[in-house]
Amino acid sequence: MNIAILSRGEGLYSTRSLFLAGESRNHVMEVIDPNRCTQAIVEGRPVLYYNDELVEDLHAVIPRIGASNTYFGAALVRHLQAMGVFCVAGAEPILQSRNKWTCNQILAHAKIPVPRTVLGMTVDVDSMLEIFGDPPYIIKILQGTHGHGVILAETYPSAVSTIETLLTAKVRFVIQEFIAESKGSDLRVIVVDGKVVAAMKRQSQEGEFRSNLHRGGSSDLVELTYAEENSALRAAKALRLGVCGVDILQSERGPLVLEVNSTPGLEGIETTTGISIASKIISYIERNKRR
């Protein structure tokens, strides 16, 4: 098959791992920079050009769309879907998972437990914070990644100040409860084609509340409980993602799904578990193209 990876970074670990996994299974692999694509509708049908060359031989695409390119990246995925190309992650699921509030709404509709969350859209700051009780509070911009745009407000005045600043700047955000018992850790669970294929526990470094490996966190192997695995599978199904990373907090009231990532990084999970997630993704494509 001809498989393309939509990525602006040909040398990035995840892109390279997917490329090599596809090549090892005798697929023709290509890395396509979304910013060098021209989408068009000609005589009523979608066509795509890459570097002025017509693209018409793709069988499948693996989107690795960065947060800064979400709109145009999702538009490209939608275009490819209209062309009949199998996409590991669809355009709408990418957009829905990227928006933290939309993602939480979908999870709540599917009755999947999530942390208490409020959309920051009112000037009545007191009424929003009253829902959570005493500090600390977590404040997140809607489309941040790798822990960027996540703020820990340890006091009520600092929360009010941060919220008022975001409202004034017209930055969209959510407020979320702080789960103290998680102690700066979370679970990253990779789901491929309706199955959990790998999991790790991430722990924040001392003095940091975010467990992202990009922010100096550490990771270890973990054996999921039935409830944790079930939450991850249900979250992937609710977001309609064949491949995703599900972040889960371990709380006193059970697992709480924190986020669902449509393009999870592969370096940390592959290094920690020794499992080739990239090969699992290529196998997923092969199974779907045979159907």
Features:
291 residues; alpha+beta; Rossmann fold; D-amino Acid Aminotransferase, Chain A, domain 1; Dna Ligase, domain 1; globular
Which strand order does the major sheet show? Answer: 14-13-12-15-16
Termini, distance in Å?
Answer: 14 Å
Largest sheet, strands/sense/barrel: 5 strands, antiparallel
Helicity level: 25-40%
pLDDT averaged over residues:
91
The tally of domains stands at 3
CATH class categorisation of the largest domain: Alpha Beta
Global geometry: globular
| Name given to the CATH architecture of the largest domain | 2-Layer Sandwich
Radius of gyration: 20 Å
What is the element string, with H for helices and E for strands?
Answer: EHEEEEEHEHHEHEEHEEEEHEEHH
Report strand %.
Answer: 25-35%
Low-pLDDT segments: none
**Number of separate strands:** 16
CATH superfamily of the largest domain: ATP-grasp fold, B domain
| Total of DSSP H or I helical runs spanning 4+ residues | 9
Helix/sheet category: alpha+beta
Structure characterization notes:
- The chain is of the alpha+beta class.
- It folds into three domains: 2-89, Rossmann fold (3-Layer(aba) Sandwich); 96-113 and 181-288, ATP-grasp fold, B domain (D-amino Acid Aminotransferase, Chain A, domain 1), CATH 3.30.470; 117-178, ATP-grasp fold, A domain (Dna Ligase, domain 1), CATH 3.30.1490.20.
- Helix content is 33%, strand content 30%.
- The chain has nine helices and 16 strands.
- Helix 1 (13-24) packs across helix 9 and helix 2 (70-82) packs antiparallel against helix 3 (91-98).
- The protein is globular and about 55 Å long.
- The mean pLDDT is 91.
